[in-house]
Amino acid sequence: SFELCICPRCFLPVRGYFSEERWNPESSLLAPRVLLALICRNSEHSLPYFLGTIERLNYPKDRMALWVATDHNEDNTTAILRDWLVKVQKLYHYVEWRPKEEPSYEDEEGPKDWIDPRYEHVMKLRQAALESAREMWADYFMVDCDNLLTNSNVLRGLMKQNKTIIAPMLESRAAYSNFWCGMTSQGYYKRTPAYIPVRKQIRKGCFAVPMVHSTFLIDLRKEASRQLAFHPPHPEYSWAFDDIIVFAYSARMAEVQMFVCNKETYGYFPVPLRSHNTLQDEVDSFLHTVLEVNVRNAPVMPSKYISVPRKQPDKMGFDEVFVINLQRRTDRRERMLRALHEQEIACKVVNAVDGKAMNVSEIHALGIHMLPGYSDPYHGRPLTKGELGCFLSHYNIWKEIVERSLDTSLVIEDDLRFEVFFKRRLMNLMSEVEREGLDWDLIYIGRKRMQVAHPEKAVPNIHNLVEADYSYWTLGYMISLQGAQKLLKAEPLKRILPVDEFLPIMYNKHPVSDYMEQFETRDLLAFSAEPLLVYPTHYTGDPGYISDTETSTVWDNEKIRTDWDRARSGKSHEQAEISTEAQNSDVLQSPLDSTARDEL
């Protein structure tokens, strides 16, 4: 017999037979050098948030160089950039600062007008930054000063793809993004079937495209990158004199393929404005981008090195702005309060009635009875406790309006997103309503239009207003004292149904006559903004969609569950496309709404 003796030291890594031959593991490589090129003009409004995202990039600052230029400003951009650079310059490997103050270009219609001398100046600046990157053997990372890179790992992620030119796909309102999938023979944008699946992330990955712009990385270690240039244009160039098209042509002639990557959400940016737009339009457009980040992401925070002016909230001319929120939905309350604060809107938060927490005895004690014969149009079910709580929340606000004699109020729920230029468009609408002396009780600012067989009647002499037909949702509406009085006078608790079914009954536009006949007086004067000013944050089936109205129990029986949310109730689906014949095309359109509808 024998014994097996195992020595633990025998299994240690052998670094050398003799002690002199032992070594430590090799250290990791330093991160590649990167030059971050920033060219800013009239960016005072965006710099606090933009520079905050730059500071939070997950990349060693001592391996980054900042190349910053600004010119032709009508605001405080130069001073903000200078102060920021003074505070952060020690953190970065190198800083180059190129300020230039000049009057506006000749023949320039306004700050958003891009004439040839302006294009050429920007191209020369980008080329100077590119040459600086080459001199310091660094990669070139270009970011426009209104692009919000909310994904702090974006730079490392792009580098991993090992492409000469690669851009992170940026989100914006509508279908606009920072890449093209098609280009005409003259160098202009071309619609292709490939675009939407990439833009909507139906297809995920990194895709070869003919154009990227706004934010992209150039790997200057690649041999072919030596032929890339922003200026001067290639000798054979004959397309439009536009900086992004000139560079795309340069890449084509150098046989360098551009790529866009949409594997993750990398950031957001605003839709470019037209030449006639003002700086205030640009400020409001960027603000909308900040609000959109807030819908499904952590809020974008400003730079810790820049002081942001204090907000001055007001009620937009209303006597009160009510925000309905369930106390247990703290995330929605925080998001909504932040969105309103960013827009400088003062509000009163109203604790919603939590129908799920009410028992049958509490319901009967309020004298509540369901409207005889009512059933949900999609599922044939009775009223849910969630719908009951929603109705009571609005009902309590109507009571407060009457008790406080509030002439005009705005009521909004906590699960909405604001359209671009929301505050100005709403105030303009109310100003015209008052100027024309319109007799009104309720004006929807967000709804789901259910009557889509024919157009709604446009209101004469008032922009963006129609007479409301059968509609769902109570996302947001303006209500007058007279309107609240009419709704209370109907004594709806004695024959209750969902609040968004009750309102069309009161303005005599509900398709079910049996419901309407149970309310003798149906003279509510109801209108709607057109186009709408708010929309839901989520629709049925969206990631993160939660319904507090449909997922509960039947209003008077706690044993019958109503989890129709998971069956994707049609009520919460996005508005279906309205046919050309039924669109409200006769409504007067304001310049702001024309700008809001631009999809470039």
TrEMBL record:
User: Where in the sequence does UniProt note compositional bias of the Polar residues kind?
Assistant: 577-593
Q: Which reaction does it catalyse?
A: (5R)-5-hydroxy-L-lysyl-[collagen] + UDP-alpha-D-galactose = (5R)-5-O-(beta-D-galactosyl)-5-hydroxy-L-lysyl-[collagen] + UDP + H(+)
What InterPro entries does UniProt report for this protein, alphabetically?
Answer: Collagen_mod_GT25, Glyco_trans_25, Nucleotide-diphossugar_trans
Q: Domain named Glycosyl transferase family: which ranges? A: 319-502
Per the UniProt entry, the Enzyme Commission number(s) are: 2.4.1.50
One GO MF term on file is:
procollagen galactosyltransferase activity
In terms of Gene3D superfamilies, this protein maps to: Spore Coat Polysaccharide Biosynthesis Protein SpsA, Chain A (3.90.550.10)
The UniProt regions of compositional bias labelled Basic and acidic residues, in chain numbering, are 565-576
Q: Where is this region: Disordered?
A: 565-600
Q: Which Pfam families does the UniProt record give?
A: Glyco_transf_25
Annotated keywords = Endoplasmic reticulum, Glycoprotein, Glycosyltransferase, Signal, Transferase
Q: Which family does it belong to?
A: Belongs to the glycosyltransferase 25 family.
**Which protein is depicted?**
procollagen galactosyltransferase
Q: Which organism is it from?
A: Oreochromis niloticus
The coding gene here is COLGALT1
